[in-house]
Specification:
Length: 231
Amino acid sequence: MSKSGQLRLARTRTIPIPNEYILALHGEYGDWCYDEERTPELRGQWRKEAFRVPETAPLDFEIGTGNGLHFAHHAIKHPERCLLGIELKYKPLIQSIRRARRGGAINARISRFNAYMIEQMFTPGEINDVFIFFPDPWEKLRQQKHRLVQDDFLLKLFEAQRPGSRLIFKTDSQDYFQWALTRFQRSPYKVLGHTVDLHKSEFAPDNFVTQFESLFIRQGLNIGYACMERV
Ligand SMILES: C[S@@+](CC[C@H](N)C(=O)[O-])C[C@H]1O[C@@H](n2cnc3c(N)ncnc32)[C@H](O)[C@@H]1O
C-alpha cells in the first residue's frame, strides 16, 4: 500500500487476469482464505463462522504476515488457539496459509485486508494477542503519517482486544521504534517491556525470528521490541 489514506482495496474478484495466488485464494485455499469482500462480513463472527470454535477459544491476530514463517510457527505451536492473519499482497498471503496448512495447522485463517481498516474486521473484545512484526517504517518525515502505529489505530486495536491480551511489536527502524513506543506509552495499553536491541535482551530466548528479522540481523541492524498488555 502506498498511502494510509488509500483505505479502499481493489476487489479481487474484478481482477481480469488472476494470477496463481489469486486463483488459490478462491480455489485451493478457499476454505482458509477470505478476500476483502468476505472479511468484513465475518466481523463479530470469526470464531463461530470461520474457525467453528466456542466463543471462549483464544483468537490471535497477525498483521502483515509476509511469507508466513511466524504465522505458521504460531499456529502449529498453539493448536489450542486460533490465528487470523492479514496481508495486502496475494503471494505472501498464499505462502502464509500454505506454510501453516503444510505444517498441519487447522487453526489458521488469512484475509486479504488492510490493517488500517481493522474496525471493519472486529467487534469490541473479539481478538486476543496481536502481532505486528516489521511493518513498513515510512522513514521520511513527510511519510510518517502513513505509519501503522498511530494514536487512533492503537485505540481501535485496544478496543478490538480482550482484556489481558498482548500486543507485540518489532521493527528494525530505531526511529519508528521510538515513535511507536511514545504512542504505546500514551495509549491505554500497559507497556510490559521494551528494548532497542532484542537479541541482546532478556526477551531473546522467547523470540521467534521472522523472515524480515533474519534479513535485518544479517545487515547488522538492532531490532526494537515492545510488549504491551491490553488492560
Ligand atoms: C516488511 S514485511 C514483514 C513481514 C513479516 N511480518 C516478517 O516479519 O517477516 C511487511 C508485510 O506487511 C504487509 N503489509 C503492509 N501494509 C499492510 C497493511 N496496511 N495491511 C496488511 N498488510 C500490510 C506487506 O505486504 C508485507 O508482506
